[in-house]
Amino acid sequence: MSIQLAQKPDTSAIIQLLKRCALDLQKQHIYQWNENYPSLEIIETDILLQQLFVLKNNEKIIGTIVLSPLIDEEYKAINWKDQNQKALYIHRLAIDPSAQKKGHAQRLMDFAENFAFENKYHSIRLDTFSKNERNQQFYLKRGYQKVGSIFLTSQSDAPFYCYEKHVKHN
Question: Model pTM?
Answer without folding.
Answer: 0.95
